[in-house]
Amino acid sequence: MRTSKPHPELAPKGYQGLLQVVRHVSASGLEHGLLHLLEVRASQMNGCAFCMDMHATAALEGGESERRLNLLAAWREAPVFSPRERAALAWTEALTDLGRHGADDALYAATREHFTEQEMVDLTYAIALINAWNRLGVGLQPDLPGVTA
């Protein structure tokens, strides 16, 4: 860990703000399995070991299969993801790597075919949220639970 104390202790108001967004996303009606997939995928892209570990564990506990998690980085080639999941993963990648992919109108329209307007907003909040957590995880490098250096 790079800081002397965990970041929630050093910046409790910021942490509580993020937790409010967590509560919103959790209550949004988006499938928890779908949220797990986008959390793991964004965390893979951002190289956040803490979030990859936490969200993959949560996905498995929520009923996700190891096989689908193993194939997540190759979701375009793996026929185990639904069209709705594929749309969410494409939107996740575009918003996680804005400089490379961008979020153009065609991708928005393609994603919108699988999500209502409200779901698109909630999905975008979920992606913004995991990217915020990833930046905290990569920047501050909290200790992985159960791992000693």
Give your account of this protein's structure.
The chain is mainly α and 149 residues long. The chain is built from eight helices and no strands. It has helices spanning 7-10, 12-26, 32-46, 49-61, 66-71, 83-96, 105-112, 117-140. Helix 6 packs antiparallel against helix 7 (105-112). The chain is globular and about 45 Å long. It starts with 6 loop residues before the first helix and ends in a 9-residue tail after the last helix. 25% of the residues are buried.
List its salient traits.
149 residues
Quick check: average pLDDT? 95
Strand content: under 5%
Which class of secondary structure composition applies to the elements?
A: mainly alpha
What profile does the largest beta sheet have?
A: none
Q: Return the string of H and E elements.
A: HHHHHHHH
Q: Uncertain runs with pLDDT below 50, 5 residues or more?
A: none
Number of β-strand runs: 0
How far from one another are the termini?
Answer: 10 Å
The number of helical runs is 8
The general outline is: globular
Please give the share of residues in helix.
55-70%
Taking Cα atoms only, what radius of gyration do you get, to the nearest Å?
15 Å
Layout of helices and strands:
Blueprint: H1 7-10, H2 12-26, H3 32-46, H4 49-61, H5 66-71, H6 83-96, H7 105-112, H8 117-140
Helix pairs in contact: 2-8, 3-4, 3-6, 3-8, 6-7, 6-8
